[in-house]
Design goal:
The protein is of the alpha/beta class. It has nine helices and ten strands. The strands form two sheets. Strands 8-7-6-5-4-3-10-9 form an eight-stranded parallel β-sheet, with helices on one face. The radius of gyration is 18 Å and the shape is globular. It starts with 8 loop residues before the first strand and ends in a 6-residue tail after the last helix.
Length: 288
Amino acid sequence: MTDTPSPTWLPCGRHRLDLSYPRVMGILNVTPDSFSDGGRHVAIDDALRHAERMLAEGAAIIDVGGESTRPGAQAVTTQQELDRVAPVVERLVCELDALVSVDTSNPEVMRQAAALGAGMINDVRALTREGALEAALGTGLPVCLMHMQGEPQDMQQAPRYDAPIEEAVIGFLEARVAACEAAGLRSERLLLDPGFGFGKTVEHNLRLLKRMDRLSRLNLPLLVGLSRKSLIGKVLGRPVEERLPGGLALASLAVERGARILRVHDVGPTMDAVNMTWAVLREGCEND
């Protein structure tokens, strides 16, 4: 790892993202089988209207995904993913001038989304697929690298680690950053996601969030996705449609522990939780 400080401004194609304070990323799944909103935004006009609402509520980024990565999800072909993602990215960029992140591990989807004006790549597999690192490098876009043990098809089948979860996550992300830098993808273009819910038990997730501030030693912006996760359902006994209060509590804790981007389904309420948390954290800073 280098000692390069986390950027305040992150160049994202034709946009610049200010990360001097926490930002909210709105989730736009254009899949039929995502765990909480599968099928709701498959039609392009429906996806566009939902993105428009999230932007109006304060989302700084719209994260478009064409492959479900819920536990047990099946893989999709490159063409299936492109057919879902490309038209939505194009209209979000052209009609809403949105900063679009593409949630993909597929090299061809990365390239085509970047050509259509996407400003960020969000890869749950941390550029480990063949050709992904080279494709991401060629786009010139920032990339979020996430920790995941296994694949969506099997990641929740009794996950275990030989080290404390926070150390396992830090070690994996350090190695991926080093691989990116060795290939020419500079750390100034990288963000990191600890991967809550991806190959982790409830106990892993709780411990990881409690100790998430330790990831600050990686010295890169942190993106966190906890919205509507099964962690909330298992702790509180809530179905997916009743997980917002628990999710807001987790969002506030994540901000307190250093998160700079919160990836969420419910943008408006999360904006309030994030802004209130940030106001408390910043109290008195102007006079320090």
